[in-house]
Amino acid sequence: MVRETELSPDDFIYPIFVVEGRGVRRPIPSMPGILNLSIDQAVEEARHAKSAGIPAVILFGIPAHKDARATAAYDSQGVIPRAIQAIKEVLPDLQLVADVCLCEYTDHGHCGLIQGQEVHNDSTLPLLAQAAVAYARAGADIIAPSDMMDGRVAAIRKALDEARFESLPILSYAAKYASGFYGPFREAAQSTPQFGDRRGYQMDPANVREALKEVAQDLQEGADMVMVKPALAYLDVIRRVKEQVNVPVAAYNVSGEYSMVKAAAQNGWVDYDRVMLEILVAIKRAGADLILTYHALDAAKLLS
After folding, report:
1. CB 195: neighbour CB atoms within 10 A?
2. Rounded alpha-carbon distances, angstroms, from residue 135 to 49, 125, 195, 215
3. Could you confirm whether 229 is annotated as catalytic?
4. Which residue among the candidates 66, 176, 262, 284 is catalytic per the annotation?
């Protein structure tokens, strides 16, 4: 009766990794319970999410071919546009969030185009915009740029408006930190940088005021929702962002956070269900309206 924070499957967005092929259900060793799925299997995974009461999934694509210009990222017949169409055909009411980034599609693993040994911000923006429009045309409900290039929200908003998707919302990864918690995701998405790292365009984990600046800039450029990533080690950032903005705030409970709990539970060191729900409640208590989490299916079953 006096509980202050309520957790529900309605709070979750479930990530799905989509690969080429058919009948593919390939385990990701560093993420127990999470799979690389071909489009037909992604449809079934999305069906499980919808049946569990989860209102949305976010799709990440792993193409068969990668190149320096990430051409598969904005191919209208790429793995994500086809996955969106296939899921929408059978689950029209499930909200589909399309992650927009180049890292899964480049042969060098960085989130933008490379000039010399540097990621070139401005030349990357048109490609991100093309990808956003391709996903919109396929039927995506929300566009979620995660690349952390400066100005990408404005570029995507302009491109969507010109393509007559004026009402399609943008969920910006506004405060995305250069974190060590992303390791398992990079195995899942085959997106580990081939040289250097991403600290040139992702945020310093020591900074909070910078996060507020990034959030304000993305909202000014047209973002409808903002995200903090990672979540568990950045609960203070979630709270500060929530206090600053009047739009929905999302938090990404990332792969490393998930895998640590799974590994500890497999070793009998923690009670998986109890710790998982405690973490998710903490993220919501900090101020997150939406939680992207690999725990979504497990948590939804317990909360139903």
Report:
1. 9
2. 21, 16, 29, 24
3. yes
4. 176
Least confident of 49-63, 182-196, 199-213: 182-196
Q: Which listed CATH number (3.20.20.70, 3.40.50.150, 3.60.40.10, 3.30.1490.20) goes with 9-303?
A: 3.20.20.70
* Rounded Cα–Cα distance for residues 115 and 265 (Å): 44
- R_g over Cα of the chain: 18
Question: Residues 138-157: pLDDT tens digits?
Answer: 999 999 999 888 999 999 99
| Dihedrals phi, psi of 236, to nearest 5 degrees | -65, -35
CA separation, residue 258 to residues 219, 251, 292 (Å): 29, 13, 11
Which residues lie below 8 Å from residue 145, measured CB to CB, with a gap of 6+?
100, 101, 128, 132, 152, 153, 156, 170, 172, 173
Residue with tokens 């101020």: 287
Express each pLDDT in 260-295 by its tens digit: 999 999 999 999 999 999 999 999 999 999 999 999
What amino acid occupies position 119? V
Q: Which of 50, 66, 229, 242 is catalytic?
A: 229
- Ramachandran category for residue 150: left, alpha or beta (phi over 0 → left; psi -120 to 50 → alpha): beta
Q: Respond yes or no: is residue 176 known to be catalytic.
A: yes
pTM of the model: 0.94
